[in-house]
Structure formats: structure tokens, C-alpha cells
Amino acid sequence: MNKKILYPSLVLVVGLGLAFAIAVNKPTLEPEPIEPMAATVRVMRVQPATEYLSITSQGTVQPRTQSELIPEVSGRVVWMSPSLVGGGSFSEGDVLLRIEDADYATVLARAEATLQRTEVEYEYAADELKRLQSLRRQQLASQQLLDGASRSARVAQANRDESRAALEQAKRDLARTELHAPFHGLVRSEKVDLGQFVTRGQSIATIYATDYMEVRLPMAADQLIYLDLPISTRGQIPEAIRPPVTIATYLGDRRLEWEGQLMRLEAEIDERSRMLYGVTRVQQSEDERLPILPAGLFVQASIRGRKVENVVRLPRSAMRDENQVLIVDGENRLRFRQVSILRLEHDDMLVEQGLANGELVCISPLQTVVDGMLVDPVTE
Asked: Out of 1.10.287, 2.60.40, 1.10.3470, 1.20.120, which CATH number does the structure's domain 103-176 have?
């Protein structure tokens, strides 16, 4: 037989045999049930705690007391304190400015001389009146002379009293040539210089006290319920119920805090912003590690309100529609739970009813949820 025909034929027969063997002995496929894959979710364990309801706000620091430094007499400025400059510091009673006092010293000397003269005249008139009264009792002087002496004595007494008042006025004017600081504080601005003539009633500087600083804080009117203050509260808040306030700001990467109190609420609600303004007072600390709270500083404030018991703080991502949350039960299945929400904050919510201690709450933002869905919980 020709080899060219034999070899291909053998290959073809062997291939057909292998194909037949494979077709006869093919494996049998048995279907297996499909198990659903459990979604991985983040959960938080319920731990009821005590919370203080707080209100956050912000505002600008302002001095509690600010005054215009105004002379009560006129004259040329002959001396100024080194502290009488913008930002200068002074203590109560310090002399800040002196006005030339020569004219006022002269007026004082003239007032003293006038008083001496009127006192002499009054003493003479009083003695003369006594003498005429004695003579009149002895029928040795007429009633007309007695009436004249009585009038002269009253005029002399009035002149003496007027001289005394003029002397006191002259002393006060001389003392007013020195301007004293009414409190411990700082100079905000000054508008006078050495040699300048100042007049009575002219503002020469603006000063403010540094013992207390105040911050005016806007608040929504309905937030007063968190402070346990009635909506009708206005003016000074009684000391026993003043909410504590924490004032904070950042200087670089350092956070600074000051403690104060909400002292009063302003008279009305702002018509444009619908906000109610409260005033917080902060006493300046004597601790050198904490800097003085400067006027004009923009700060954040946290007003601590009333205390509530057994509330659960959850992230807002845990909330579903209609005040519901998702609970992971003992079989790792999701269950809807209706809860009572006390308050919604920026990133959190406070739940007061509907959750038990130790339960797992799903906090993952799931798009599609079916009650009873199997999940793989991962505890935060």
C-alpha cells in the first residue's frame, strides 16, 4: 500500500476514535444553588449616655466698657502719659494728661481771698445784728435799725456761701487739669498731642476696660429650648441659670479657649435674620499662659445647654426616611426601627427613644435596603 495513503488514514481513524471516546465519557454537570453574597456594612453599638445640648455660634469680641476721654476744662496740653497712645495700657487712677493750670490756680487764689473777705463781713454783720437785738430789748434802738442790721447779716451770709461755692468750684477746676484713668484698660485711639489747646467737652481719646470682654452671639429663637430658657427671657439672665460658654479661636496651629457666661439676651428678634442675640461676658484671666482676649477678635462659641439622660449619639448617615434606622439583629439581618429623634446637629443626631443598649445600628449609606437583608457587619 502506498505510504502516502496509509499514514493519513491511520491518523484520521485514531482521531475519530478519540473523539468518540470523549463524547461517550463526557462529565455530567449538576446545578448548585446560588447563595446570595452578604453586603459588608459598618455598624455602631448603641451606648446610651448623658449629653449636654449645646448651641454653636460666632461673633466678635468687644469691650464691656468703652469711654471717650473728655476734659472738663479748657487749656493747653503740657504733659501726656506715655500710655496715651493707641494700644497703650494703663491702670485705674493713672494720670493720662495734664492741662496748663496757671489760670486755674489764680482763680483758686482769688476765690480763697474772696471767701476770707466775705467771712469777715459776715462776722461783722452778725455781731452788729446781735448788738442791735440787745439794744432793741432795752428799748435803746429802733425797729428800723434792727431790720437793716438783719438784712445786712443775711446778705453777708449769702455772699459767704457764694464764695464758698466758688472756692469749691475753683478747686474742682484745678483738679480737672489732670485727667485720671477711670479703670484698668487700654487706649483704642488718641486725638491729641503735646502743646495742643483742648476745649471743654472735646474728645481726645477712646479708652476701654480690660477686666471683662463681651461677645455678641446670634442664635435662632427656637434654640432657646436647648438652653432651658423661656422664649420671653430678655435682659439680664438670673445668675443661677446663666449657661456657661466656651469661646475659642485658632492662632496658627494652637487652639485657645476662654470660659464665660451668657449674661443677657437682647430686647428683640432681628427682623431680617430672624436671629436673637445673646451677650456673653468673659473675665480676663490672670494666667500668663492664656493671652488676654483682644477686642476685635473673631471667635467661635459653644453655649452649653440643659442636660439630657440616656440619649444615643449617631451619625446622620444612620437616619433613613420617616425617622427610621437600620438595626442588625442576631442573625446579621437588617431590620427597620422607628426612633424618636431629640435633635439634629451638623453631622450627628441624638436619639432619645427606640434603641436598646448594645444593639447594632447600621451607619453605612445603603442605596437599596430590604427588610431582612443579610449583611456582614463591621463594628466601628
From this structure: 1.10.287
Whether the pLDDT of residue 34 is over 70: the answer is no
Instruction: Return all residues near 185 (Cβ < 8 A) that are at least 6 apart.
Output: 63, 65, 89, 90, 207, 208, 209, 210
Which residue ranges make up each domain of the chain?
41-51+309-379, 55-64+211-308, 66-100+186-210, 103-176
The confidence score (pLDDT) of residue 289 equals 66
Name residue 207's beta-bridge partners. Answer: 67, 187
- Cα–Cα distance list, 153 to 141, 144, 145, 165 (Å): 17, 14, 12, 18
Return the percent helix, strand and coil in the chain, to nearest 5: 25, 40, 35
Q: What is 196-258 written as a DSSP string?
A: -EE-TT---EEEEE-SEEEEEEEEEGGGGGGGT--TT--EEPPGGGPPEEEEEEEETTEEEEE
Q: At what angle do helices 143-175 and 102-137 cross, to 10 degrees?
A: 160
Note the pLDDT tens digit of each residue in 353-367. Answer: 989 999 999 998 888
Residues 291-343 have pLDDT tens digits of 778 889 999 999 998 889 999 999 988 888 888 999 999 888 999 999 999 88
pLDDT confidence tier of residue 369, bands split at 50, 70 and 90: confident
